[in-house]
Amino acid sequence: MSDSVVTVRPRRIRVVCWASAITLVVVFSLVATSLTGATGDGYGSFQRGDQFAMVGLGVFGALGFLLFTRPRVVADARGVRVRNVIGSYELPWEVIRGVRFDRGAPWASLELHDDDLLPMVALQAADKESAVEAVRALRRLHQAHLAALAAGHPTSR
């Protein structure tokens, strides 16, 4: 059994999310600097706290965008660890039937022996060839595990 480790993170979505997060903070900061004077009808006025609150909203929005940079898949001879936007899973190869990347699907998934499909958001169709290569690498690890089982050498945990 090989000692290779496959680590995959989405590429294109990370660039888009970081650019969007930075843009959001900049826009909210610019809006915050324009919050001065009367609120419109003359009964109130914008204070320094309002400006800080607007920047804070931009930061929270940016953090929301950055959640989409969280997905990752790490696989080795023992199994696969999948971290999606929300939720994480650690699965041994024994429970995995195959690695799927269906035509038209936004991301790859793990097909489990109980007929469940576990999405792997880190392997996105938008990443094109790098996602296909990652799926092939996962399939090679899975095949190596199956070959080891057939040879009577189950992997140890």
TrEMBL record:
Name of one Pfam family that matches:
bPH_6
User: What keywords were assigned to this record?
Assistant: Membrane, Transmembrane, Transmembrane helix
Start and end residues of each Low molecular weight protein antigen 6 PH domain: 70-140
Annotated membrane-spanning segments are 12-32, 52-69
Q: What is this protein called?
A: PH domain-containing protein
Q: Which organism is it from?
A: Micromonospora robiginosa
